[in-house]
UniProtKB/TrEMBL annotation:
UniProt record, GO biological process: DNA restriction-modification system
Protein name: BsuBI/PstI restriction endonuclease domain-containing protein
Residues annotated as domain BsuBI/PstI restriction endonuclease: 190-332
Organism of origin: Vibrio paucivorans
An MF annotation (GO) of this entry: DNA binding
Length: 333
C-alpha cells in the first residue's frame, strides 16, 4: 500500500473505533497558535497553517528506514507526505494535496526560512540540509529550529520573538546560513540525475537532435522556472504554466519550429502516455509545429529494472541509454 492508502486506512480505523485521527496539538502547539504566528509574519493561508501543523508532527517518520532510526515526521517529510497529512488526516478527504501546490503552501515559508529543504540520505540514515539531488524522492522539508521555538514559546513571548525573527537583516543572514549549509551537503551527495540530464543534452541531443537548441532544463528544486529560463522560453515563443508537465530538458528547433522533450530517468519519470499527452497539449497551446520525445536512462540495468514490469514508455517515442550512447531506440507498440 502507498502512503495515501495507508493514511485512508488509518483514518477510517480511528473513526470506526471512535478515537482521534490526530492529536489537538504537537508539543502544545495548536492550529490556533500556528494561525496567530503566521498572521504576525504575514504568511497565513489555510494550506500554510495545515502544512506547518503537519511538520510539527512527532509521530514516527514516514520514510520507513528513518522511522527505524527513531526519526519523527518533523525531522523531514516529502511534499507527498505533507500533502497526505493535510488532505487525508487533517481534512478527511480521499486524496492528498496537489504536489504542484507546493509553490503556494511551502515556497512562501521556505522563502523566509521558516521551512528548510532537507534530504534523507538513506545510505547512512541522516537528514541533510538542502535538495542535493534534483527531483529525488528523498527530497523533504522541515521547520527550522528557530521557527519551532517561536511556535512553542509561551504567550507574551512569541510575539516579540516573531517580530525580531522577521526583520530584513536577520532574514538575509538566516537564508544565507541555510544556503551555505545546503551547498556543503550537495558536495557530499553525487546527483546521478543531474549527471544524466547533462549527458542527455550535451551528448544525446548533440548527436541525434541536430538543429535543436536547449530552451529549458529542470535541474533544481527552487523556482520551477527562473527568470532567465522564462526569458529563453519567451524568445522561443513558449510559456510554461504551473500546471504544465515539467520536462527535464526542453529543446526547440527554430527552423522547423518543433519541440523535443527529454526525460532523464534515474528513479522514475518516463515519457508515458499521460506525460506525452500533456506535452502535446502544451505544444499545441503554444502554436508549435510538433513535438518529439525521448526517455534516457544511465544504464541497461536501470532500464531493465524500470521496464521489465512497467512497460510504460509511450508509443512513437525514443529511448537512449547513456552507457550505450551510439543507439537511439525508437519505441513502437
Amino acid at each position: 500500500m502507498g502512503i495515501v492508502d495507508d493514511a485512508i486506512a488509518r483514518r477510517d480505523k480511528c473513526i470506526s473505533e471512535g478515537t482521534n485521527v490526530l492529536p489537538s496539538n504537537y508539543n502544545g502547539v495548536t492550529v490556533d497558535k500556528i494561525t496567530r504566528v503566521l498572521s504576525r509574519i504575514d504568511r497565513c493561508t489555510n494550506n500554510m497553517i495545515e502544512g506547518v501543523f503537519a511538520l510539527l508532527s512527532t509521530e514516527p517518520n514516514w520514510f520507513k528506514k528513518a522511522a527505524l532510526n527513531n526519526y519523527q515526521f518533523r525531522h523531514g517529510a516529502t511534499t507527498a507526505h505533507i500533502g497526505t497529512h493535510v488532505g487525508i488526516l487533517q481534512r478527511g478527504n480521499r486524496d492528498k494535496l496537489d504536489r504542484e501546490g507546493r509553490d503556494y503552501w511551502l515556497k512562501p515559508l521556505w522563502e523566509i526560512g521558516a521551512i528548510e529543504k532537507a534530504y534523507f540520505n538513506s545510505k547512512d540514515c541522516t537528514f541533510l540540509p538542502g535538495h542535493p539531488k534534483a527531483k529525488s524522492p528523498n527530497s523533504a522539508y522541515r521547520l527550522s529550529d528557530e521557527f519551532i521555538s517561536i511556535l512553542e514559546a509561551p504567550e507574551g513571548e512569541w510575539q516579540e520573538m516573531a517580530e525580531a525573527w522577521i526583520q530584513e537583516d536577520v532574514l538575509r543572514e538566516r537564508l544565507k546560513l541555510q544556503a551555505d549549509q545546503a551547498e556543503e551537503a550537495k558536495k557530499s551527495v553525487e546527483s546521478a540525475h543531474s549527471i544524466l540530464i547533462a549527458a542527455s543534452h550535451k551528448v544525446y541531443a548533440k548527436r541525434f537532435l541536430k538543429g535543436y537548441e536547449v530552451v529549458y532544463i529542470d535541474d533544481g528544486d527552487g523556482d520551477r522556472i527562473t527568470d532567465e529560463q522564462a526569458h529563453t522560453l519567451a524568445q522561443a515563443g513558449l510559456t510554461l504554466k504551473l500546471g504544465d508537465a515539467m520536462p527535464d530538458v526542453l529543446l526547440w528547433n527554430p527552423v522547423t519550429d518543433k519541440l523535443w522533450v527529454i526525460e532523464a530517468v534515474t528513479s522514475d519519470g518516463e515519457v508515458d502516455n499521460h506525460k506525452k499527452a500533456s506535452l502535446i497539449e502544451f505544444t499545441e497551446r503554444n502554436g508549435k509545429a510538433g513535438v518529439g520525445f525521448t526517455t534516457t536512462y544511465p544504464t541497461w540495468k536501470k532500464t531493465a529494472e524500470r521496464q521489465s514490469q512497467l512497460k510504460n514508455l509511450a508509443d512513437d517515442t525514443y529511448m537512449w541509454i547513456q552507457e550505450d550512447a551510439s543507439r537511439n531506440i525508437h519505441i513502437k507498440q
